């Protein structure tokens, strides 16, 4: 039976190319032997193409061989030709009715991405469509940032697998968000028990990333989010607030912001001196977001005199100056400077603002225009929408990323930095992030393409090859729709994710989301979750035991949170059965954690689940 080749380029290639033309003719390349590199190919390209040849081996009569020289015998499969006028990381690919696949590029990254497309066209080497592709990235920087400070710290093996997946989606930048998870030699008190990254591991990972055309950008929060430091007596004199400040939206005590003074500056500079030389990147994300305590403690008088945002800007400029002296260009989260947009023009040169927002309605259009009109480089920073969500938020994720890329591209963003946070215990499992990672990677490569419709294939390509991977991706996307049963939307979370982590704080809030929860909607979400669980148990994904176990426990965790929420909304309740389920979920969580992550942080994450078990939903009902 003759095979039919789809005319839709995205059916075979992800990310979707900028331009693809099909001639309608088919080639048989199953007997081809050689992939020819440019003579001046660097070692990363050589290694990646040899790796690709190994991956293609089972599909050919004999394993394709790789050479930088012209072989004296054997049919050519693909030939790489250096062409200077092609945009950076772009490529041209052409397969005619005769001859090898020709891949033209100006740089080795372009050849790497071009060969990725060629490998996807070679899914069936006996039935390859003759075509011409002209492709290049819509966004220059395509980054992914993983939170390794709340509480999951991946193993090196997990991170290397992640790098390979990111490269398959054509990311070219990776950041690991750090607060206290680097092993600073003189500060063991801060990181003890958290199995932090060592300098040797950073250098090893940096080199590994370079092999996959990815830049490992250092990330160390330098103004806010330093509670892990400031809780200790040795560092309390650096804190803006002492005693802690109560953050009204959640009712939580906070002591996480540095006092903007010379002593704090010298302290951060001493950390930079130990941290930054381990990276080959010359970029540096210094964080500086959510400095909510600023002006409410030791800097109160100064802030009254000069203004909170002005004081923030002054200290930001000093931090950036210290990084610049060490040869680094600074990135910083742009939320605080947006309080007074008129000050944006006073930012130092060669600084990059990170325009972040994680809801579908975030004003990327307005904010990106503001940074553009101020002449400041910026990246757009949407999110995977999985933290505080357990099962993800598919509709929000796709809309949030789509908006960020659309408005970022129109208004001159240098790129994208997809964020993946772990607030309140990092209880979501890694596969729940996969659709968001694929969505952002595909969209950043081709901002005008319908990436959303091809997400199952993109997830499968990068994380779970084959038809089972596509089926798993579809399952993940559906699980992310469980939250859609609720008419009450909860910022940066699902209602069931929020109740699990902040129930006691919500009890104190005058505007608690619990006031808007309806028992009927909770039951619908619970029914949906149970259907997904039954489907998974009846037909687990073949070849993916780890993912099956993670998805099952995630669904059980969501079930437990929904049962609690249902009772709070006036529904039925079997506390004994609920406690049994939570004990099962917690025990399984501890086992699954260690399959991908280091032990540090697990005690806190599991502790949050145990703390949830101490809560009483009737306390809300009977308040």
Would you kindly provide a written description of the structure presented here, covering whatever features stand out?
With 623 residues, the protein is α/β, with parallel strands linked by helices. 42% of the residues lie in helices and 14% in strands. It has 20 helices and 17 strands. The strands form three sheets. It has an eight-stranded parallel sheet. A seven-stranded mixed sheet has the order 1-7-5-6-4-2-3, covered by helices on one side. Strands 11-12 form a two-stranded antiparallel ribbon. A hairpin with a 4-residue loop joins strand 11 and strand 12. Helix 3 (156-168) runs parallel beside helix 5 (199-211) and helix 17 (545-568) packs antiparallel against helix 18. It is globular. The chain starts with 18 loop residues before the first strand and ends with a helix. The model is unreliable at 1-7 (pLDDT under 50).
């Amino acid at each position: 039976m003759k095979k039919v080749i789809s005319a839709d380029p995205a059916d075979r290639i992800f990310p979707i190319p900028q331009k693809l033309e099909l001639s309608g003719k088919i080639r048989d390349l199953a007997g081809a032997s050689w992939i020819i590199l440019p003579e001046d190919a660097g070692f990363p390209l050589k290694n990646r193409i040899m790796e690709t040849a190994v991956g293609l081996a089972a599909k050919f009569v004999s394993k394709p061989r790789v050479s930088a020289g012209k072989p004296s015998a054997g049919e050519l499969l693909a030939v790489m030709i250096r062409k200077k006028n092609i945009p950076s990381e772009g490529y041209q690919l052409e397969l005619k009715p005769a001859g090898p696949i020709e891949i033209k590029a100006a740089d080795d990254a372009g050849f790497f991405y071009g060969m990725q497309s060629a490998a996807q066209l070679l899914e069936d080497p006996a039935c390859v469509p003759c075509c011409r592709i002209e492709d290049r990235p819509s966004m220059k920087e395509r980054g992914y940032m993983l939170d390794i400070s709340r509480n999951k710290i991946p193993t090196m093996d997990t991170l290397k697998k992640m790098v390979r997946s990111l490269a398959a989606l054509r990311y070219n930048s990776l950041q690991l968000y750090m607060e206290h998870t680097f092993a600073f030699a003189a500060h063991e008190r801060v990181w003890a028990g958290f199995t932090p990254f060592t300098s040797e591991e950073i250098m090893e990972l940096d080199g590994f990333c370079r092999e996959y055309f990815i830049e490992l950008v250092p990330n160390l929060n330098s103004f806010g989010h330093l509670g892990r430091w400031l809780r200790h007596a040795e560092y309390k004199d650096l804190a803006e607030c002492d005693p802690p400040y109560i953050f009204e939206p959640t009712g939580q005590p906070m002591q996480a912001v540095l006092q903007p003074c010379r002593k704090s500056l010298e302290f951060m500079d001493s950390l930079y001196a130990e941290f930054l030389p381990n990276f080959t990147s010359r970029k540096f994300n210094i964080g500086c977001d959510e400095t909510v305590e600023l002006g409410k403690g030791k800097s109160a008088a100064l802030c009254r005199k000069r203004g909170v945002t002005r004081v923030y800007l002054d200290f930001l400029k000093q931090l950036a100056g210290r990084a610049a002296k060490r040869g680094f260009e600074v990135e910083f989260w742009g939320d605080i400077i947006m309080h007074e947009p008129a000050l944006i023009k006073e930012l130092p040169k060669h600084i990059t603002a990170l325009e972040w927002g994680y809801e579908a309605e975030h004003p990327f259009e307005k904010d990106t225009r503001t940074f553009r009109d101020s002449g400041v480089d910026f990246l757009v920073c949407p999110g995977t929408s999985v933290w505080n969500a357990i099962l993800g938020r598919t509709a929000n994720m796709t809309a949030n990323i789509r908006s960020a890329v659309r408005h970022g591209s129109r208004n001159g963003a240098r790129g994208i930095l997809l964020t993946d946070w772990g607030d309140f215990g990092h209880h979501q499992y890694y596969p729940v992030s996969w659709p968001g990672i694929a969505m952002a990677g595909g969209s950043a490569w081709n901002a005008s393409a319908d990436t959303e419709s091809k997400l199952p294939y993109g997830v499968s390509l990068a994380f779970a090859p084959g038809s089972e991977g596509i089926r798993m991706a579809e399952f993940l996307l559906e699980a992310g729709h469980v939250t859609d049963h609720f008419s009450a939307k909860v910022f940066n979370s699902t209602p069931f994710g929020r109740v699990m982590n902040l129930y006691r704080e919500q009890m104190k809030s005058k505007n608690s989301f619990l006031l808007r929860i309806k028992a009927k909607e909770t039951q619908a979400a619970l029914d949906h979750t149970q259907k997904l669980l039954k489907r998974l148990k009846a037909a687990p994904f073949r070849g993916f035991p780890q993912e099956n176990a993670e998805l099952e426990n995630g669904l059980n965790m969501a079930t437990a949170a929904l049962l609690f929420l249902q009772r709070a909304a006036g529904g039925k309740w079997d506390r004994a059965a609920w406690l049994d389920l939570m004990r099962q979920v917690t025990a399984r969580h501890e086992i699954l954690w260690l399959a991908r992550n280091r032990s540090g942080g697990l005690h806190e994450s599991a502790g949050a689940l145990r703390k949830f078990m101490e809560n009483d939903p009737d306390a809300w009902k009977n308040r």
